[in-house]
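The instructor's notes for this session suggest beginning with a concrete chain rather than abstract definitions. Hand out the sequence below and ask the class to guess, before any prediction is shown, which regions might be ordered.
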Amino acid sequence: MTHLTPQSGFLQSYRICAAAEPWMQAGARDLRERVFVQEQGVFAGHDRDAIDDIALPLVAIAENATGGPIVVGTVRIHEPTPGVWWGSRLAVAPEWRRVGKLGSELIRLAVGTARARGAVEFHAHVQRQNVVLFRRLHWVVEAEMDLHGLPHAHMLASLTHYVPIDDPAAGWRISAPGPVEGSA
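After discussion, reveal the predicted structure:
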């Protein structure tokens, strides 16, 4: 469902931050289910796994949405071995994808947070249709594979292009257009 404001199509405020509050964490879980289970059919029932127990969820929040702030983007990060970080489950709600900045900002927060915590590598398995975005953000393809029945690339971030972010809960705000009327 698109949450439109009277200013739809004009600049709106988005907060990019760690999911520090329960409503943010619930919003991230709901969005992942919507994208990976309902929209893409990657998983049946839910997409939760053991990584959720150790991962730090990050979110993009549309602050001006009707009914109050809502989570419109998410990604999770974790460190399975010292210095080696992974990002996964990057998702932006379909009606908010045209904003055009939310995925990039979540990636910037993910890698910057890991850098501040000592990352020497940052990896992700990226769905093929998103490889171009990651390349623009200074990632390289390490390998290609199928995961969950979909073509993916194992990608590695160039850490020197990302500023360390010591306080992901504080995050930052950006201004960008809102969703387009009738998009879904």
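Then share the key points. The chain has one domain: 11-167. The radius of gyration is 16 Å.
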